[in-house]
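Usage

Read records sequentially. Each one opens with the input sequence:
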Amino acid sequence: MRHYLKFHFDPGFDRRKLAPRRRQDGTVDLYDLGYVQNVMAGEVVAQWLPADQAPPDADPRAFYSERVFPYGLGCTPDPGDPDRLVSTVNGYVAFDNGRITVRRSLVVPGDVDFHTGNIMFVGDVTVEGAVRAGFEVVGRNVVVRGVVEGARIRATESLVAESGIKGSDNAVVRAGGNLRAKFCENAELHAGKNLLVDTSAMLCHFYVGERLAVKERLVGGTATCQGAAYVGEALGGGLRTQTKLLLGYDPELISRDRTLRKKIHRASERVMALRREAGPGGRLAREAGEQLAEMEKRLAAYQLLRHRLWLNHHGDADFMACRVIVPGVIGANVEIGIGEAVMDAPDGARDVLFRYFDGDVVMSSPAVKR
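and closes with the structure output:
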């Protein structure tokens, strides 16, 4: 007697034969190749059905002489329904060597590029190569062995960029927990807990929930962190390159504020241009007037969102616990803010500590008590 095993995934899935997904409008998405078949714990991956319910084009591998699930790691028969096979973990499902398995860790053997498309995985991801510009990687814990270019990476827990981040102003890297990078340039980094840069950071925007540490140089850009910031060799440098540190506030609040300020700036510039175009006169003036009304409405919405963003902020941060620790040297054009207090750090100062006291930022030495 034959038994039909209905697969709730594609048992013939082959990463060597990926193709772009087709959109509803008939176009294809070159960044979406469906690299993994994700399943969640408790999800049905296969079930037994009577053989006469098999479709005409059923996979020949779906027929068995005995009603025994061919399964391996990561799945088990459903205790409540022995005809169903369910995943026991979050991971990717595959049919390898005649067995259904679900694995929690995914290894991408090369670069994330047009051969793989974006990687969206519910478990841990290791990318053995680089993550190329324009691509995205999502996972629980993410490790990238090669360089992260102008890409987007999001880890719900930890993230490690072993060869660094060279973002070209387009990289956005987020970790719900700790984030570590060899170096970073022209990138936006978010860490829910701690951020560690093993060498230097240049022209980046950091948003750190707890502590920030840059072992060598931190030059240009902004760093927002709720706890302490450590810069080992040099903070700031270059007369035309400003370096700003802001401590004591929720970094994601500051990030959203920065995004809204950019939108407000662009909308304001567009409103001014449309006002010049919408002077008296024919059809083009009427079109400009319609666009102006729409853009003024959008600008007002952005301004309202920014107002509401800060409306419920009660300023209950512990500014007294904030520290900026620089055992090395302070370069030119460095601004340090702790809460609402701001100091232009003195160029050339060495081995110094900045902290909040009585409404001001104060500087002392040494940076670390020995």
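Summary fields computed downstream for this record:
- The chain has two helices and 32 strands.
- The radius of gyration is 27 Å.
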